[in-house]
Automatic annotation (TrEMBL):
This is DoxX family protein. Its main location: membrane. Keywords: Membrane, Transmembrane, Transmembrane helix. The chain crosses the membrane at residues 35-57, 64-81, 87-104. It is found in: Membrane. InterPro entries: DoxX.
Length: 121
């Protein structure tokens, strides 16, 4: 799959998920309460997801953003695993794999970004 297309798909997923959290949709509020997380953590998570969705749309940042969001999804995977939510565990795992795949396909971009940031010090 073209990395640009994958970035757009991931951006759509994270935009929808982050938006649902920031809009306090009932299913998100109920889920965070069920997991024992504070409502503020739901808003924080939603903000991270929205910022990540925007980062995925920026060509120079999309690979690095994918790497960060893949790592971020490990928390969701852990939450669903602990609470025996196997369907959502599978969904979160698939999103994480897609994000890590996108990051891997753009690993040269990540190296260039790190090199550029080191030069600016």
């Amino acid at each position: 799959m073209n990395s640009r297309i994958l970035s757009y798909i991931l951006a759509l997923i994270f935009f929808a998920s982050g938006g649902a959290k920031l809009l306090s949709l009932p299913f998100e509020v109920e889920a965070f309460a069920r997991w024992g997380y504070a409502i503020e953590f739901m808003y924080f998570t939603g903000a991270i997801e929205l910022v990540g969705a925007l980062g995925l749309l920026l060509p120079r940042l999309s690979s690095f953003t994918s790497l960060c969001l893949g790592g971020f999804m490990l928390g969701a995977i852990g939450t669903h695993l602990v609470h025996n939510e196997w369907l959502m565990f599978s969904v979160a795992s698939a999103i994480a794999v897609a994000a890590f795949w996108r990051a891997w396909s753009g690993r040269n971009q990540i190296c260039q970004l790190i090199t550029t940031l080191r030069r600016k010090k």
